[in-house]
Write a structure and sequence with these properties.
With about 475 residues, the protein is an all-alpha fold. The protein has one domain: Hydantoin permease, CATH 1.10.4160.10. Helices cover about 80% and strands about 0% of the residues. It has 20 helices and no strands. α2 packs across α17 and α15 packs across α16. The radius of gyration is 22 Å and the shape is globular. The termini are close together.
């Protein structure tokens, strides 16, 4: 069976940005920013996205294009022991975990978009959200959202995913820009900008570890790296594309949409709510939604805002569902439409506990997703640097420009040492915090080095004599 590819570079970039943007930038990013000191979080997040996210994204794209397969098939077909296939399996599992909670929020957004036309949530936004956020009603909207996602994935890469995101992503950017201009004119917009953009070094110094772990998790979540999404999307890329250019474009566009979302949300939180932390993860549906009730043309503004969020949610959810679908199509030769229908039933079942139980949702959407994606990216980096090695450098250089090509060697050794150690530091920080263990940054660093250095040595030694497997799938 001939494998699908992207019709154009812009189609791939917009699809990848759509995967990255999603609810991570419009729903989760303002929430995480508000909970972690505003500008202190923003600066840390920007540093991680550019300094760690782009090299990590490159590692993911290299593995995907080198194999032309899904995460499991990639580690089967390329260099390395069979144990690396487990990492591919974790990617498939992570994608199912992601869409299981993500579709709950997608259902909320779909409902609020529809209800904006009647103003159903205007009178008592807090009470309204509490009444519909979990339970049978939330589950029903979750199922509708998943059906919309499955229909797009069922059509295929070019006609479904690429065509959809080519329309949706420009629409998201235009509508968000218009909303940001409108938010600028709200009464307390200046206070929102102060909280969001004026760097607070004192807060960062006092809360460095929590801010760092939250920013790292958010960076991986919004860039869709560590979970296999970008690896799968990269497997449809042709060889003449510059991966460094594509990775940089995806990261920059993703950052732009995220920062733009903040320029919409924070002026509204300061103008019409009780401050930046008002509403927590429900801020979008309580504080922001409540603001529209007090404004002229509130129904129109509410519908416009939630249309933006809905489009963003769909562009991400289709990338999550594509991972297990691609796995079953590639590895077993199943027909795409049948596989998609089967996966729809599975994610409805795995998503139900998130729709009915707030504690399950909070755990999955918070710590579990961050930990799984951090481990996934650490694995991608180690694999690209020490297992693929020279092959990764060769793949990096294909189609790369004159500025990027000389950096290939530096990139390889950075993703094999500095960056995964940084991510492991963040992983331990979050894990120990979840377990209720209080440690300082030096203790976490010692634990990180005692784990990472022997592991790097082990990988380098155990994989150095491993022969190459088939480099490309030629189905």
């Amino acid at each position: 069976m001939a494998r699908d590819t992207w019709a154009s570079r812009i189609g791939f970039i917009l699809a990848a940005v759509g995967s990255a943007v999603g609810l991570g930038n419009i729903w989760r990013f303002p929430w995480m920013t508000a909970q972690n000191g505003g500008s202190a979080f923003l600066v840390t997040y920007l540093f991680i996205v550019i300094g760690v996210g782009v090299p990590g994204l490159l590692a993911t794209l290299v593995i995907g294009r080198r194999s032309n397969l899904n995460p499991v098939g990639a580690f089967k077909s390329l260099k390395g022991s069979r144990s690396w296939v487990l990492l591919g399996g974790i990617c498939v599992l992570t994608s199912i975990v992601l869409i299981s909670f993500y579709s709950v929020v997608g259902g909320w957004v779909l409902r609020y978009f529809i209800e904006s036309f009647t103003g159903a949530y205007f009178a008592q936004p807090g009470a309204h959200f509490e009444a519909i956020n979990y339970g049978m009603s939330a589950f029903q909207y979750q199922v509708v959202f998943l059906i919309i996602t499955a229909l797009i994935v069922m059509i295929g890469v070019r006609e479904g995913i690429e065509t959809t995101t080519k329309v949706m992503m420009p629409g998201i950017a235009i509508l968000l820009t218009a909303m940001a201009i409108w938010a600028f004119r709200q009464p307390n917009a200046a206070q929102g900008y102060q909280f969001y953009l004026a760097f607070d070094g004192q807060y960062l110094s006092k809360n460095f570890l929590p801010v760092l772990s939250s920013a790292a998790g958010q960076a991986l979540f919004t860039l869709s790296i560590g979970g296999g999404t970008m690896l799968t999307y990269a497997s449809y890329i042709e060889e003449d594309r510059s991966l460094p250019f594509d990775a940089s474009s995806i990261a920059i566009l993703n950052l732009g949409i995220g920062v733009l979302a903040g320029l919409v949300v924070f002026p509204l939180l300061f103008s019409y709510a009780d401050g930046p932390t008002s509403g927590g993860p429900g801020a979008l549906f309580v504080s922001i939604a409540g603001a529209f009730a007090n404004l002229p043309a509130g129904k129109f503004l509410g519908a416009t805002f939630f249309l933006v969020v809905l489009l963003a949610a769909i562009t991400s959810s289709i990338s999550m569902l594509e991972i297990p679908v691609a796995f079953l199509v590639d590895e077993f030769g199943f027909e795409r439409s049948k596989v998609t229908r089967g996966m729809l039933l599975l994610v409805v079942a795995t998503g139900a506990p998130n729709a009915f139980n707030a504690d399950v949702f909070s755990f999955v959407a918070g710590h579990l997703v961050s930990l799984l994606m951090t481990l996934g990216l650490i694995g991608f980096m180690f694999y690209a640097a020490w297992v693929l090695g020279p092959d990764a450098v060769e793949e990096y250089r294909k189609g790369a420009g004159s500025l990027a090509r000389p950096l290939a060697g530096v990139w390889r050794y950075a993703i094999g040492s500095v960056f995964p150690i940084f991510l492991l530091f963040s992983f331990y920080t979050d894990s120990l915090s979840l377990a209720g263990v209080s440690v300082n940054s030096m203790e976490v660093l010692v634990i990180t080095l005692l784990t990472a250095v022997p592991f790097i040595i082990f990988i380098h030694w155990s994989e150095r004599e491993t022969p190459s497997k088939a480099i490309k799938s030629t189905d």
